[in-house]
Amino acid sequence: MLRRTLLLGSMLAAPIAMLGGAAARAAKDITVLTSLPSLSFPFFVHMQKQLVAEAGKLGGITLLNTDGQNSAPKQTGDVEAGITKGVNAIVISPLDVSALAPALQEAVDAKVPVVTIDRRVVGVKGILAHVGADNVKGGEAQGAAIVAAFPNGGTVFHLQGQPGAGPAIDRNKGLHAVLDQHKDKFKIVFEQTANFARDQALSVTESGLAGLPKPPDVIVCANDDMALGALEAVKARNLKGIAIYGFDALPEALARIKDGSLAGTVEQFPGEQSRRAMDIAVAFARDGKEPAEKLVLLTPIVITKANLDKAERLSEMT
Predict the structure, then answer these.
(1) pLDDT in tens, 111-141
(2) Distance between start and end Cα atoms, the chain
(3) pTM value?
(4) Spatial separation of the C-alpha atoms in residues 204 and 192, rounded to whole Å
(5) Which of 24, 50, 66, 139 would give a disulfide with 175, using CB separation of 3.0 to 4.6 Å?
């Protein structure tokens, strides 16, 4: 079957070849718009690859893969263009929990099924399903790992995620839920956003460390990119003994855990999120099949050197 390519302005269109076999030929051909906050982040690149792979496995799907470029207006425009073109479903990780609401409500009102992944959106009635990690539990797991690693307590340096992003809000909530129960032992000596970005984490950590009378015992970060940026800052100051925790279980972070540079990260199974979201969207778009669950939340786990084999992307570790 021929490949089909649709171009939506600055969108990155990625047609998926139809799989062979009677089942694939009998399936209704559909077009699915995928939208991720920014493909400059390795985490979202991995999610995109898994969306593409699952669509190829299902067969009969043309994907319109779009890059939000860390811009709510860009992501909104991509969604609106997809609606105009008549896509059959949308799988999206909204950059902001509120800013994408009008566009997604427009999609729902136009009878386009919407499945959100990783990040939810608020105030939209009729979202088909959400598939993500329980980021509150992920933040709690980070906090519990710190408490377990430092039974006598310690000082904590905290790099938060992008303001307005659902995962940042929830991870912060979970972390504080644990550490705030141990205020007699753990003191947060620095807390600031670095917007999930490695370069910002490097500069924020450098500034934060310079302003402290002594190095913290722990640097905990809302994603691995920030953890790796913080690690650069720590190495530049030749500081030893600081336990750095990330979130996302990126291959690079796993490698740094293996060599002891990072203490841990949180695995939230983004590949499984992506595959399940695509399955739900396609089943509804093709057959009108309602998902068994409207809210699918995977439980994150902390990855350390002791359980590296539990990481989803271990085979990609360099």
Answers:
(1) 999 999 999 998 999 999 999 999 999 999 9
(2) 37
(3) 0.83
(4) 8
(5) 139
Please report the sign of the dihedral spanned by the C-alpha atoms of residue 199, residue 312, residue 246, residue 317. negative
Distance (Å, whole) CA 161 – CA 256: 21
Task: List b or e across 247-279, with b for residues whose CB sees 16 or more CB atoms inside 10 angstroms.
Answer: bbbbbbbbebbeeeebbbbbbbbbbebbbbbbb
Separation of alpha carbons 301 and 247, rounded Å: 10
Give which of 205, 142, 139 is closest to 166, Cα–Cα: 139
**Chain segment 244-272, per-residue pLDDT in tens:** 999 999 999 999 999 999 999 999 999 99
Residue 308 exposed, middle or buried by CB count within 10 Å (0-12, 13-18, 19+): middle
Q: Look at residue 148 and give its three-state secondary structure.
A: helix
Whole-number Å distance between alpha carbons of 57 and 51: 10
Residue 150: helix, strand or coil by DSSP?
Answer: coil
What are residue 298's DSSP bridge partners?
Answer: 133
Diameter of the chain by CA atoms? 69
| Rounded distance between C-alpha atoms, residue 285 and residue 174, angstroms | 35
Residue in 86, 59, 74, 54 with CA at minimum distance from that of residue 11: 74
Q: What is d(CA 12, CA 22) in angstroms, rounded to the nearest whole number?
A: 30
Per-residue DSSP letters for 246-311? Answer: -SS--HHHHHHHHTTSS-BEEE--HHHHHHHHHHHHHHHHHH-PPPS-SEEEE--EEE-GGGGGG-
Q: Which two tokens stand for residue 60?
A: 């009969």
Tallying the residues shown for the chain, one arrives at 318
**Do 70 and 38 form a contact (C-beta atoms < 8 A)?**
yes
